[in-house]
Amino acid sequence: MAFGREKIELKTPEQIRLMRRAGLVVAEALAAAKAAARPGATTADLDGAAAAVIAQAGATPSFLGYYDYPATICVSVNEEVVHGIPGDRVLQPGDLVSIDCGAIVEGWHGDSALSLVLDDIDPADAALVEVTRKAMWDGIAALWGGDGLADRLNVVGDAVEDAVDGSGIGYGIVEEYVGHGIGSQMHLPPDVLNYRVRDRLLKLKPGMCLAIEPMITRGTIATETLDDDWTVITADGSRAAHWEHSVALFEDGLWVLTADDGGLAELGARGVPVAALD
Ligand code: MF3
Ligand code: CO
Predict the structure, then answer these.
(1) Separation of 105 CA from ligand 2 center, angstroms?
(2) What is the pTM of this model?
(3) From the CB of 69, is ligand 1 less than 6 Å away?
(4) Count of domains in the chain?
(5) Is 277 part of any domain?
């Protein structure tokens, strides 16, 4: 647990523009992996598609070699929550697939994830994916307080929990894995919790960059790790979804570094200004 003593890395606008370059490479790599995700493809095929985009862009995959992680992306299927290792697993109709990717440009990191359901879609899985996506965007939008940045990091967990509760379905919000600061490294303080806490968390400031990444299940919040020491699954076998974006905080708004449009569509719909980054 963080007690607010950690040094938080604040970025200059110039550094954030480099992070946007990394973020846009991640967005393109995720799009390629998503396009490759169909029944009959292996999870390694998705990894190859993302790796090709990152190499073509002259960027570096940030997951590969991170604590000896052996791939460019994580592909987590069905009851797998996060950190699934791509391999010879063949995707099946109806699989719920979460894809997570990170890349580095000139030393600056981007990190993003998405979930999708392959045909034939179970509507209950599609609903989970959509609630998780909405929870992520509500969590991002909550960083803006109306006429300036919100006061404290608590707003993210509050908004994610409200979005999940608002669905009226008894989903679980995973607590063992959380979002994080991002910048000169993939994982920096602070932890970004996806649930409500009473403690007063960190004060939000311009120049902060945060990865917002709720992981939501159709059942329990309890997780287990497989013998590969990476793959995290739900303890009850229920399916899980994961969405993530890296976001920069400015005095005049937010910029979603890993979204093609900087977050304009989803933030605009929530009355949140996109910062003037250029
Ligand atoms: N992208 C994950 C996160 O959001 C980290 C992946 S762990 C790795 O924090 F080893 F695969 F890199
Ligand atoms: Co992350």
Answers:
(1) 16
(2) 0.97
(3) yes
(4) 1
(5) no
Would you say residue 6 lies in a domain? yes
Which three-class secondary structure string do you get for the chain?
Answer: CCCCCCCCCCCCHHHHHHHHHHHHHHHHHHHHHHHHCCCCCEHHHHHHHHHHHHHHCCCEECCCCHHHCCCCEEEEECCEEECCCCCCCECCCCCEEEEEEEEEECCEEEEEEEEEECCCCCHHHHHHHHHHHHHHHHHHHCCECCCCECCECHHHHHHHHHHHHHCCCCCEECCCCCEEECCCCCCEEEEECCCCCCCCCCECCCCCEEEECCEEECCCCCEEECCCCCCEEECCCCCEEECEEEEEEECCEEEECCCCCCCHHHHHHCCCCECCCC
What is the 145 CA–ligand 2 centroid distance (Å)? 23
pLDDT per residue as tens digits for the range 49-91: 999 999 999 999 999 999 999 999 999 999 999 999 999 999 9
Residue 139 domain-assigned? yes
- Write out pLDDT tens, residues 15-54: 999 999 999 999 999 999 999 999 999 999 999 999 999 9
Could you tell me if residue 235 is inside a domain? yes
**Domain of 42, in residue numbers:** 2-269
Nearest ligand to the CA of 76 is 1
Going by alpha carbons, the residue nearest to atom 8 of ligand 1 is 63
